[in-house]
Amino acid sequence: MTGHAVRLEGVHFRRPGPEGFEVAAHSLRVSPGEVVALVGPSGSGKSTLLQLISGELVPGDGAVHVAGENISSQSEADRRRLRLQRIGVVAQTLSLIEYLNGIENILLAATLLGRARDERGRAKELAARLEVTHVLRRRPARMSQGERQRIAVCRALLMRPPVLLCDEPTGNLDAQRGSLAVELMLAAARSHDAAVVIATHDDRVLPYADRVVEVASLSEKAQSAEPAGDAR
Amino acid sequence: MKWIIGLAIRYALRNPVQTALLAVSLGVTAAIPTASRLIIDRFDQRMTAQASSVPLLVGARGSRFDLVLASVFFREPPERQISVETWNSIAAVPGLEPVQMNAEHTASGRRLVCIGHGAYRRLGLSPAAGSLPLLLGDVTLGAAVARELGLAVGDTITTDRNELFDLSVPPPVVLPIVGVLEPTGTSIDDVVFASIDTAWVVGGQTHSHAEGEDLTSDDIIAAGDNAIAVRPTLQTETTINPSNIATFHGHDDPSLRPLTAVLVFADDPKPITIAAARIESDPALQAVTPVMVVDELLGVVLRVQRVFDAITALLAAASLLLVMLTSALAARLRSDEFAVLESVGAPRGTASRLLFAQIAVVAVAAAVIAAVLVAAALAVSAGMNLA
Fold first, then answer.
1. Nearest Cβ partner of B348 from A54, A80, A87?
2. Does B355 lie at the interface with A, CB-CB under 8 angstroms?
3. DSSP string covering A172-194
4. Residue B195 and residue A126: Cα distance in Å, rounded?
5. Mind listing the pLDDT tens digit for each residue in B143-153?
């Protein structure tokens, strides 16, 4: 039970409202350094699962453990603190803050923690590793989509989070750029043994994953005991 | 929460047009009423101080406002005049120090205030250069007159002749400048001071004859056995100098020479009250306390100010609504940014705090703009004659 960077046990989440969208995950465990791809059709709950892991959403039943903490029983403030310090998130949309330049966007979490000055070297190192040093002084409006995506990855990895969550990281990139972005991102994440969970319906991403998990299969009891899906 | 301010400042700097428009509109909205209030307060203080320097003012019956504005603030002279006879009757009251004033003439377009010597001490006037006008014809310039006309001690200034086609009006008189007053920031700076006798030379009540032997045959219009008639410009001296100063004289009754007002000073208020009561009983005269008249005038200004304040309050409310509307629109436009902060793990309420910080940054910028505008308005008004 211990040693998993991410562990979901008997999780059930239902969005409020008449639509009643539901997601269940009887068991999902991700070890440090492991790359897991969550796959499934649009609307299957991939992004919702990532939000449950990041603590943005709280399940109605079950427990979500991230980096050794049961975040489903934590207060909202504690979950935000955990997300800030120990979870990196690369969102589906290319979300950078438009009035900040490249390096300021990378340093966002450190800025919120009052450690921007200390982490500046690390930010430059990540930018070099993801090959975006040349856009550190540019604002997002003057970056390509690939550059924006890699800046977002730098931001997610800045605090060396033990968990990196990526929602459709190649969604807005062509094949070549998408592959490059994933390769660079995973190389950077592996450098500090981060567990990576990627929600995607892009088949090009799957070869990079250690394990591929069908979201639909997570709701089946039979999947609960051991890691689900195709191991690669 | 330093980072909130940091982000707000970066947002402001990288959206300069939006920030500048809001800051300027708020700054101007704040600056206009503040500056006008401060300038009016200064105007009020200066007018009141200047009016307080004259305890009682006596003039021909008519508008009390005209009398005070003409005699204390040196605006247009009142339509009706009094005479030296009035001064004589006031001077007869023990304990009073009445001072004659005639401010009906101008020199180089500036009011020529001819006044008894006692007024300078009472009004606290002292020269920055030269001396006060003690001799007939001498003038001392207000600071603004000297600056604007480029005149100094040793120069001359010429009285104005307003009736060009009336031959009975005496010709302009050239007056030597013997001093320039310290600047006061009041209407004193804009006038030319001379002795009271000078007014009567300029007005033609007194004169000095040119020497007959200096005349040429062209100057003589007609000649009789005992007298000659000469051209009007040669009938009287047009300059006053040490060689002719003692020859100026009049053929009239000195007690009937014109005054525009009598300023009444006293060390004790009691004789002032007695004199005011006596004068008020004379149907041709009025006695006014300048500070009371000025209070009445300023009351009108303050009523206008209150209307202005109400309009400003409406403008401020409109500006506030503008800021709220802009902030609401900005919040909608910045929803992606707030979503990023949420996903990163920013504390709860970060969006509203960012918007509040944004408004605070604009408010600080607006306050700086307002302070600069108010300081500039005060600096400009300091150089203006407000009283």
1. A80
2. no
3. TS-HHHHHHHHHHHHHHHHTTT-
4. 89
5. 999 999 999 99
pLDDT digits (tens, 9 = 90+) for A182-191: 888 898 888 8
E strand segments, chain A: 6-14, 22-30, 35-39, 61-66, 69-70, 87-90, 163-167, 195-199, 211-214, 230-231
What gap in Å lies between CA B301 and CA B327, rounded to an integer?
38
A227 to A48, A167, A194, A222: CA distances (angstroms): 19, 20, 18, 10
The string of DSSP letters for B164-188 reads TT-TTSPPP-EEEEEEEEPP-SSGG
Cβ-based contacts of B341 with chain A (< 8 Å): 97, 108, 112
CB contact, 8 Å: A189 with chain B? no
0.90 exceeded by pTM = no
Average pLDDT over residues B131-140: 93
Token output for A217: 């299969």
CB contact under 8 A, B345 and A91: no
Q: Which residue in the set B6, B10, B347 is minimally distant from A80, CB to CB?
A: B347
Taking the CA of residue B340 and the nearest CA in chain A, the distance in Å comes to 6
Q: How far does the CA of residue B341 sit from the closest CA of chain A (Å)? A: 8
Average pLDDT taken over every residue of chain B? 87
- Comparing alpha-carbon positions, the chain A residue that sits nearest to B2 is A114
**Residue A210 to residue B24: CA distance in whole angstroms:** 58
Q: Find out whether A189 and A164 touch, Cβ atoms under 8 Å.
A: yes
Most A-contacting residue of B5, B14, B340 (CB-CB within 10 A), to test interface: B340
- Tokens at B214, concatenated: 């200096």
**B251 CB near a chain A CB, below 8 Å?**
no
On the question of pLDDT at B212 being above 70, the answer is no
Nearest to B345 among A84, A95, A111 (CB): A84
Looking at the complex, does the CB of residue A91 fall below 8 Å from at least one CB of chain B? yes
Q: How confident is the model at residue A94 (pLDDT cuts 50, 70, 90)?
A: low
In the predicted model, what is the mean pLDDT of residues B124-134?
A: 92
CB A147 within 8 A of CB B38: no
Strand ranges for B74-164 from DSSP E: 82-83, 96-107, 110-115, 127-130, 139-141, 156-158
Structure tokens at A120: 């500046």
pLDDT per residue as tens digits for the range A101-117 = 999 999 999 999 989 99
What is the reported pLDDT for B223? 73
Non-local CB neighbours of A113 within 8 Å, separated by 6+ positions? A84, A85, A159
Q: Are B31 and B377 in contact (CB under 8 A)?
A: yes
Q: In which element (H, E) is residue B17 found?
A: helix B16-52
Residue in B380, B362, B385 with CA at minimum distance from that of residue B36: B380
Please list the residues that pair with B156 across neighbouring strands. Answer: B176
